[in-house]
Amino acid sequence: IRQSPTVAENLQGIVIRIVYVPRRKNDADRAAQKLISLGAKVDIYQTSDSGNAAYTGKLIVKNGYENYSALITRTIQDIEYLAADNASAHQVYFKDGQQFNLWIAR
User: Fold this and answer.
1) What range does the domain containing 83 cover?
2) pLDDT tens, residue by residue, 16-70
3) Within a domain: residue 65?
4) CA angle 91, 16, 65 (to 5 degrees)
């Protein structure tokens, strides 16, 4: 994947995992469709309400992919307001080939 220093215009080649709680399944599905329409590959994962406080409302970003964050957050802002976070503590939670963890857990 070639990365641009500017804000991305599409999500071709980007893999995003949407983590959601059961009551937000419809929102997770809508967010997935919006992101897929921009070229992203999306993996949807259901979780419980337990232990999500640190991630709620966050777009966890793999280092080096920050230029895609604005497009992702803007695309689903009507579903969930997200703040991008690429803290080093989060970097161990990405599967191979995955660049973002998006939390819909409010």
Assistant:
1) 15-104
2) 999 999 999 999 999 999 999 999 999 999 999 898 888 899 999 999 999 999 9
3) yes
4) 55
